Structures are given as structure tokens and as C-alpha cells.
Amino acid sequence: MITGVPNPQDEEVESSTLSGLGAQWEKDDVIRQNTLKNHSVLVWPKPTMVGVISFETVAINARVLDYMLRLHCPRLSQAKTVNIDHVRSEDRYDQT
Predict the structure, then answer these.
(1) Mean pLDDT split into 10-residue runs, the chain, 96 residues
(2) Distant-in-sequence, close-in-space partners of 38: CB < 8 Å, separation ≥ 6
(3) Where in the chain are the domains?
(4) What is the pTM of this model?
């Protein structure tokens, strides 16, 4: 857990979606400033690494991922991946 990141479980969220994720990101000053600066919720070390998942990219995006995982993981009875379309629907900067 990252210090200073509120627990989104404290707020009412639909159990089968990531509804509310975008609002949580917007409330976080660090994520909000990075998003406004880079026009992306995620930060990439260099242009050639956009979309590449590695320990480096996970580490620099840990704050963003922490919010997502706090919403996603507690709602599962077994391990599953996050539906990327649900995440994209919360990212108003996503152009796809």
C-alpha cells in the first residue's frame, strides 16, 4: 500500500465494475498533475516503452495501479485479470 492513498472501499462502488476509479484518480493530486502534464494516467520511461509492462513501468505507475487493484481484487472469488475495457472507460484521456 502506498502511504497517502485513500482506500476506495470506504466509498460505495459497484461490485462488478471499476466504477469510481476515475474519480479516485482525479482526487489524487500526484496522479492528477501527472495526467494533466502527460495527457495520460500512466507514465512511461521513454516513448519506445509505451504499453510495455515491466517491473520498471509497474514501479513508476504503482500509485495508479494501487487504486485499480484496491477496487478490483476484493470483488473476486478467484484470481482474474482486470478487464482493460473497464479501466479505459474510467480514463477520460484514453483515445481508443
Answers:
(1) 50 55 90 91 89 87 89 66 64 56
(2) none
(3) 17-90
(4) 0.61
